[in-house]
Specification:
four-stranded mixed beta sheet, heme binding, 22 helices, 2 domains, three-stranded antiparallel beta sheet
């Protein structure tokens, strides 16, 4: 009787029928078999029944667990988490994440790393969530321990890897400098000089060669590295010389980024720790690369300190680059208790030096400066160069947009010709001035549209400092990580409309004038307290290069299909962006002259 009762009620109590598990018939046959056996087998039957109930109970627990079973999103399994899903889609991670976000009604999905207590990670393309994370509850979503550990060898405690008072100190310093007109003008001059003296002449020479194919991505990365090093350090690494030399520090910088990207791809964090402890594999490569990068940066800092202050510590001259400006701040007597405390802490903890020793303090100050400047070089190089690479890729697939930009440039040059007849100062030979660039509204819109679809940094991770609930109802616990997915946001009809996948600069224009969107909707440059300080400088540099190259050259992409993106910190084309380059035949009455 007991066994018959179990056979009827257990499937209903446990909800197995709702799960598609029909065991009623099988259980009834099993009961009949047990009743027909000798009494001595009854004990064994009860043991089997107990085991069966235990297995069923575990299945139910798994099915109703907040992380597993029936929950929306990719299936999460005990111990392995989402390891199998990540492994299957490692070659197309951004597309995979975008598809999963599309499936979710809230545009937020949850993933779990492997382990007994695998870390929970959320990926969101919900505008309300982005504003909540970046502004409303900014203090609850710092970079976090995981991010600092992964990026620590590259960025140290620089502004892009710092939280709390240290971040506020660096932000205040950097904000003061980036609002300086003289710094903005110096940054523009660095880019303009590199464009006029190297990039444009290099491409003209390429046009004359029988094999006039160039890797535009490589050229733009070289261009940006030269100009950002001039801007950041006041040093020219000469990456864009005609011979395209192998510059050791640039190669080391790329290798470091590649190794850091592998850290993010490591689904089991302990593997990174083991490789780092034994100094093997990509951890060894990272260490070697950072020895070159840090050696370059620290050498420049020591030389600049001597150049600016001499052996007596008295200021001898002024320079405009970012390093010199930061150096003046750290040498001043009113830099505040936070910086002083930070330098002393670095002496004791990071460098094992006596904090009261002036030489030790200088060394700590050098490391502080190194971390800050390397952070800005990383941000400045990739935002502009990769943003431009994807911009020209978009133009290759949308020639009508390129034609409109070309017409706008010609109109601007005709206006320039009139101004020169009125005895205005001479203008640049191969590019526009800062004031002229402000008039190129359609180009400005096209660059924003490219940055929307192809953000140089497609994902930005944060870590919950305390338990919280997002506007869409997602519940986060302390230590959970959340990434807002800029790449996926651009492909959401609920955000950008049914034409969200189209390259359409007109969405940014009203009556021919550029109209900006909410920074929480267009989060390429972040938003809230951490909004990118170099945003305007980056946009001006992109317009400077784009306007000059579009007017002087016609690029034809070699790839017929969209290029595959490298799963890395940044959105880079795996095999570069190879193009045929041709010099345009101009109406000489409206040339840059």
């Amino acid at each position: 009787m007991v066994l018959q009762t179990l056979s009827y009620w257990m499937p209903k109590i446990l909800g197995l029928q709702q799960m598609g598990i029909e065991i009623g018939d099988a259980t009834e046959e099993w009961v009949q078999w047990v009743q027909g056996q000798a009494p001595q087998r009854l004990s064994l039957a009860l043991e089997v029944t107990t085991l069966l109930l235990l297995v069923i109970t575990l299945i139910i627990i798994w099915w109703h667990h907040p992380l597993y079973g029936k929950n929306a999103g990719p299936k999460v399994y005990p111990l392995v988490g989402n390891f199998l899903s990540f492994l299957r889609n490692s070659h197309q991670m951004l597309d995979y994440l975008t598809k999963e976000i599309h499936k979710s009604p809230t545009h937020t999905v949850r993933f779990v790393r492997p382990g007994l207590r695998g870390q929970v990670m959320y990926n969101t393309a919900n505008v309300a969530n982005v504003e909540y994370i970046l502004k409303t509850r900014f203090e609850n979503y710092p970079k976090g321990d995981f991010q600092r550990d992964v990026l620590g060898d590259l960025l140290g405690k620089g502004i892009f890897n710092a939280d709390g008072d240290l971040w506020k100190l660096q932000r205040k310093l950097a904000s003061h400098e980036f609002t300086s007109r003289s710094l903005r003008e110096f940054g523009f001059e660095c880019a303009q000089r590199e464009l006029e003296d190297r990039l444009v002449p290099f491409l003209f020479r390429a046009c004359e060669k029988p094999d006039n194919v160039v890797d535009l991505q490589d050229l733009l990365l070289r261009f940006s590295f030269d100009s950002i090093c001039l801007f950041g350090f006041g040093v020219d690494p000469n990456c864009l010389e005609l011979s395209l030399p192998t510059v050791q520090v640039a190669v080391a910088f790329d290798k470091a980024l590649e190794c850091i990207a592998r850290r993010y791809q490591t689904l089991i964090p302990v593997i990174m720790s083991v490789k780092k402890f034994f100094n093997i594999g990509d951890e060894r490569e990272l260490k070697e690369a950072m020895t070159v990068v840090n050696g370059f940066a620290e050498g420049v800092i020591r030389a600049r300190r001597k150049e600016l202050y001499g052996s007596q510590g008295k200021k001898l001259l002024a320079r405009h680059d970012l390093l010199s400006r930061f150096m003046e701040f750290t040498e001043s007597s009113d830099h505040g208790e936070v910086l002083q405390s930070e330098l002393e802490q670095r002496c004791m903890d990071d460098l094992n030096l006596n904090a009261s020793d002036p030489i030790a303090k200088e060394q700590a100050s050098n490391v502080f400066l190194r971390d800050m400047v390397i952070s800005f070089i990383l941000a400045g190089r990739d935002t502009s160069s990769l943003g431009l690479t994807w911009f020209f890729h978009a133009l290759s697939n949308n020639p009508h947009v390129e034609a409109k930009i070309y017409d706008e440039i010609k109109q601007r040059l005709q206006a320039r010709q009139s101004s020169q007849q009125n005895d205005h100062p001479p203008l640049p030979r191969h590019s526009f001035s800062l004031e002229e660039l402000k008039q190129l509204q359609y180009l400005h819109a096209a660059i924003h549209e490219s940055l929307r679809l192809f953000p140089p940094v497609p994902l930005d991770p944060k870590e919950a400092a305390g338990d919280d609930v997002l506007p869409d109802g997602s519940s986060l616990r302390k230590g959970d990580r959340i990434m807002y997915n800029i790449f996926a946001m651009a492909r959401m009809e609920t955000i950008w409309g049914p034409d969200c996948n189209e390259f359409k600069p007109e969405r940014w224009l009203k009556d021919g004038m550029f109209v900006s969107e909410s920074l929480f909707k267009f989060a390429t440059f972040q938003a809230g307290p951490r909004i990118c300080l170099g945003k305007e400088l980056a946009l001006v540099q992109m317009k400077l290069v784009a306007s000059s190259l579009i007017y002087h050259f016609k690029f034809t992409a070699m790839q017929m299909n969209p290029p595959v993106t490298l799963h890395s910190l940044v959105l880079r084309m795996v095999d570069g962006f190879h193009v045929l380059v041709h010099s345009r035949i101009h109406d000489h009455s409206i040339e840059f002259q």
